[in-house]
Specification:
Layout lengths: L1 H22 L32 E8 L10 H17 L6 E8 L4 H14 L4 E3 L4 H5 L2 H7 L4 E2 L25 H15 L4 E7 L2 H14 L4 E8 L7 H9 L4 E5 L2 H14 L6 E3 L6 H7 L1 H4 L3 E4 L10 H13 L8 H19 L6 H8 L26 E7 L5 E9 L14 E3 L9
Parallel strand pairs: 1-2, 1-3, 3-4, 5-6, 5-7, 7-8
Antiparallel strand pairs: 9-10, 10-11, 11-12
Helix pairs in contact: 1-10, 2-13, 6-7, 9-10, 13-14
Length: about 450
């Protein structure tokens, strides 16, 4: 039991790192640079396309392997494990081994700039893959895509900045469900389930929360009313005052866009301290058992939020079985299976499938075209398919709802909504369609 508790706490730190990094919520560090992490030398590429030989393709990323969100390193750690699995079991992709170079930017934007230059100019990467964090990546996006024509594959963030207009960023592809879409489906569900009710929203005052609030407002449309919207800063110690203000404004339903620590304590304050028993909806960022540990099992029971993959506990699913086997074979260990490792497999499978579809000879233009050819591709741990195209670089546009049980587990149930193929600018409650949740994903 003690070992299980320690693993939960380590996982909690990881989820906090994911939420902070993927949303770009933090203030930039003081800019002090530290030496980059030492990486294995990449094979010298030959031919006209950087990062490609007859036997190898080189991908790179700037990410946080150390520093304030070091626990987030489980994402590139598992992604590399998945690529190694493909290299050993399938001989790589189209005869090429995948080399994945990870540069540790320690969540410092200036360091991310220097390391990205190293990846392009010294390592000769073919493409950037799953780069972490909006504030860091904004500092390198023009250098990558405008100055060097490097494809920017499946960025690790749900900010709408990356997917709102592929014509402006034709080499950039997202990965997470965008936060406006996430808020939209929560707002739609609230409007359909609690019509005429008053809604209160507590949101982080940055891309994460602002995008999410916009989605909730679109989703409720004229069937419910947002009567209170309370922003908070990432430096705030708690959300107690925000919960109390939303309650005093007369909200009947509460939506929170926050990281697990603040969110769990906010739910505990609402339920245990105030005795406020209202429906609560939360972002996918915090839909995990660790949030239940913080908020308390009794308090978190019934809280809902979007989910897009199977859970690590659904071991009857073939994709989850293979996920756990890869964790064991890599030395990471299946006990570390989590929303983070499942996300890592999702983006790794997207990258492998894209490489498989790219025409020979392998070029950067061909990689982008291959990504845009993905139609109804479902990764082995995903609930719903991915469809991309020249006007749609947003791969995750469908989600079901997860619900916390009395045991602190997240179980999947319907309905599921999709906004597949709809641009951010055109999102509204009217565009959402109900889709079936896979039968083996829904808890009895």
């Amino acid at each position: 039991m003690r070992r299980w508790y320690v693993l939960l706490i380590v996982g909690l730190i990881a989820v906090l790192g994911l939420a902070m990094a993927s949303c770009g919520e933090e203030e930039e560090e003081d800019g002090e640079e530290t030496p980059a992490a030492t990486e294995p030398e990449a094979t010298e590429p030959s031919g006209e396309t950087p990062g490609v030989t007859d036997t190898e393709v080189i991908l790179g990323t700037h990410t946080s392997l150390t520093g304030p969100i070091a626990a987030y390193s489980i994402i590139p750690q598992f992604t590399k494990a998945y690529f190694d699995y493909i290299n050993s079991t399938e001989g790589g992709v189209n005869g090429r081994q995948i080399t994945y170079i990870q540069k540790d930017d320690q969540y410092s934007p200036p360091l991310a700039v220097d390391l990205t230059r190293q990846l392009v100019e010294q390592e000769g990467i073919f493409a950037m893959f799953n780069a972490l964090g909006t504030p860091n990546h904004l500092q390198v996006i023009d250098y990558l895509t405008r100055d060097n024509d490097v494809p920017d594959m499946f960025v690790a963030t749900g900010a709408v900045e990356w997917v709102k207009d592929p014509a402006v960023r034709p080499l950039v592809f997202g990965s997470n469900p965008n936060y406006t879409g996430e808020g939209l489906l929560m707002g739609k569900y609230i409007a359909d389930t609690y019509p005429g009710q008053k809604v209160g929203v507590i949101y982080q005052n940055d891309d994460f929360g602002i995008d999410g609030l916009a989605g909730v407002e679109l989703g409720v449309a004229d069937k419910a009313e947002v009567v209170s919207s309370q922003p908070y800063e990432v430096t705030d110690p708690d959300l107690f005052a925000h919960v109390e203000r939303v309650r005093s404004d007369g909200a009947d339903v509460l939506v929170i866009f926050s990281t697990p620590l603040l969110l769990g304590n906010a739910v505990k304050h609402a339920r245990a301290d105030l005795g406020w028993d209202v429906p609560i909806f939360i972002s996918a960022v915090s839909m995990n058992e660790l949030t239940a540990l913080i908020g308390g099992l009794d308090n978190m029971e019934g809280v809902m939020g979007p989910v897009a993959t199977y859970t690590a506990q659904q071991t009857d699913n073939a994709g989850i079985q293979r996920h756990l086997e890869i964790l064991d074979a890599s030395g990471i260990g299946r006990e570390k299976a989590s929303v983070l490792t499942l996300y890592a497999q999702y983006v790794a499978e997207l990258m492998v499938e894209t490489l498989k579809r790219a025409e020979e000879p392998l070029t950067r233009e061909g990689l982008v075209a291959a990504a845009e050819s993905l139609q109804d591709f479902t990764c082995s741990v995903c609930l719903f398919p991915t469809t991309l195209g020249p006007d749609d670089h947003d791969p995750s546009q469908t989600a079901a709802f997860g619900v916390f049980t009395a045991e602190g587990k997240v179980v999947i149930e319907g309905p599921a909504y999709t906004w597949e193929g709809v641009s951010v600018a055109d999102l509204s409650a009217d565009v959402l369609q109900v889709v079936e949740v896979p039968a083996d994903a829904v808890s009895p």
